[in-house]
Amino acid sequence: MGEEPSIWEYFTRNWSTGQPGSIDTLLGDHIVMSLLPIVAALAFAIPIGLACVRWRLLYQPTAGLVNIIYALPSLALFGVFLAVTGLSQATVIIPLTFYAVAVLVPAVVDGLRSVPEHVRQSAVAMGFTPLRRLTRVELPLAAPVVLAGLRVAAVSSISLVSVGALVGMGGLGYLFIRAWQIDYFAPAIVGIVGIVLLALIVDGILVVSQRLLTPWVRARRSG
Amino acid sequence: MITFDGVTKRYADGTVAVDDLHLEAPTGEITVFVGPSGCGKTTSLRMINRMIDATHGTISLDGVDVRTIDPPTLRRGIGYVIQQAGLFPHRTIVDNIATVPHLLGWSRKKARAHALELLDRVGLAPELAGRYPFQLSGGQQQRVGVARALAADPPVLLMDEPFSAVDPVVRTSLQDELLRLQAELNKTIVFVTHDIDEAIKLGDRVAVLRVGGRLAQVAAPAALLSAPADEFVAEFLGRDRGIRRLSFVSDASLRLRPDLTVPASSPVSEAAGRAASAQSPWLAVVDAGDRPLGWVNPAELPRDGTLEGVRLLPYGTFVHGRDSLRTALDAALLSPSGCAIAVAEDGGAVVGVATRESLDEALALAASDVGNGDPANG
Ligand SMILES: Nc1ncnc2c1ncn2[C@@H]1O[C@H](COP(=O)(O)OP(=O)(O)O)[C@@H](O)[C@H]1O
Ligand SMILES: [Mg+2]
């Protein structure tokens, strides 16, 4: 055996090898498995949140359920889905969607509740139809709170994907297992740096889109 | 015209907020709903644009039952202003104003151009157009609220305590602004307030409501002050309603004396002679343009020199032919002479002096009108 490769060497040697463990493939899987749940969760959380605001009685039971889901250990949930969906990305994507829903439902509810009553009333008085009021007034005003929830959901989803490595679907998390298998730390470092960088980039993109989508919030801070 | 015909609102919890209301808000006039908190003012107002539906009775706009009109369509034709302005925090001022034109499908360009005109109309600088609501003061936000309500030129305007949350100075200027706009626009306005002074200042007609949503009296402000229908209305109007009623009595009945002025350039001796022949201790000193400078009592002055440089005593003025008897009385009370100086609307030259005697006569005449002239319900 020759000298052990440096971290950088490990990275370049394993990038784009065309093999299953190639780092670029792992990264691509990681992005899909962490962000697809976020998009799916938003699509679920908005109608659920709307229903909770519309029918107040629904909120407590929904919040309770959502908290229980959030409390379930991810590994256990992955294990359950391994039995259902087998060795496919769905095994990780579905549980992570649950977690993201758990974060986003309260965010949507809080966001909608943050719309001042007099603003809602004046929208009604000006002749907005209910749908238009929702899309032009209530959701835009809820956006800052929802986007804050989205940041939390996205970062925790990126981090949780790696746990999936223990059931064989972990994106960059595979590198931790690899490090343990070959008893050498370089892959683990590459994995950690990769996950942290990915989280930072996604969070940065969300911060920028928050600024672009909600200019009135930024104006308030600097004004 | 907005007509309430036997309108009752009972909420789901059994609260009767409005009880058998019969009322007309005539076209082109300001009708004020006034009464203590919880007497059903907001409920009454919101039944007009169907934000609340009446339990019994009908509300009609120019004879058309509002319940036959689809709510969003109805509301786009009725301006609405509320206490906190209710501006959209996420839209710029110009876009806030253009809201209803936008809903009505005007082109973006046309709606914005019109919004900029309205901004000017309510007395706001064009620089504010691109700002967000929180960057404006409370008074400015209220002006935007009024501009937004006027944007699609609705014939009817509903205003729910629009000026209650701003400080008194700003409130006065917003009230004056509303009266100025109304003089140009002649909207049918229903204005809700709990402030009787505001009601009396703004209303062509004032409807006083009592808790339980019952109409106590509806009348023109002067009639309300001179002939309150009952104890509740009298109490609500407050103690000094006699004095306040004078705001609605013109100064035409005031006899003015032309012989109580003296130019500042006159010698003191001449002033003394003039005072003696006018049989008045007091003379109003005027400048070369006949504008008032103050009062003197020539008998108290040394007999040499002119009135220039003499210490003058404070005075009060009212505009002849425009101000009310109340303003004239107030002007008299601002001077040790007890007299009020009438000035011309243009230039401010002295027209004459209202003495205590002439004020007395005018007050007696005004008092004799109480119970005769203005009908209690009209
Ligand atoms: N949604 C509602 N449900 C039950 N009671 C209400 C509701 N809205 C108002 N009320 C009651 O109706 C009465 C009149 O209310 P409101 O019209 O708001 O009075 P005002 O505007 O004169 O203060 C009050 O007693 C109030 O508590
Ligand atoms: Mg009210």
TrEMBL record, chain A:
CDD domains for the chain: TM_PBP2
Protein keywords: Membrane, Transmembrane, Transmembrane helix, Transport
Highest taxon listed in the record's lineage: Bacteria
Keyword check for Membrane: yes
Topology of the protein relative to the lipid bilayer: Multi-pass membrane protein
Subcellular location(s) of the protein: Cell membrane; Membrane
Family label: Belongs to the binding-protein-dependent transport system permease family.
Protein name: ABC transporter permease
Record organism: Spongiactinospora gelatinilytica
From TrEMBL, chain B:
SUPFAM superfamilies in the record: CBS-domain pair, P-loop containing nucleoside triphosphate hydrolases
GO molecular function, one term: ATP hydrolysis activity
Keyword line: ATP-binding, Nucleotide-binding, Transport
Top-level taxon: Bacteria
Domain ABC transporter: start-end pairs: 2-236
PROSITE patterns: ABC_TRANSPORTER_1, ABC_TRANSPORTER_2
EC annotation from Swiss-Prot or TrEMBL: 7.6.2.9
SMART domains in the record: AAA
EC supergroup of this enzyme: translocase
Family annotation (Gene3D superfamilies): P-loop containing nucleotide triphosphate hydrolases
Family: Belongs to the ABC transporter superfamily.
Name of the molecule in the record: ABC-type quaternary amine transporter
Protein source organism: Spongiactinospora gelatinilytica
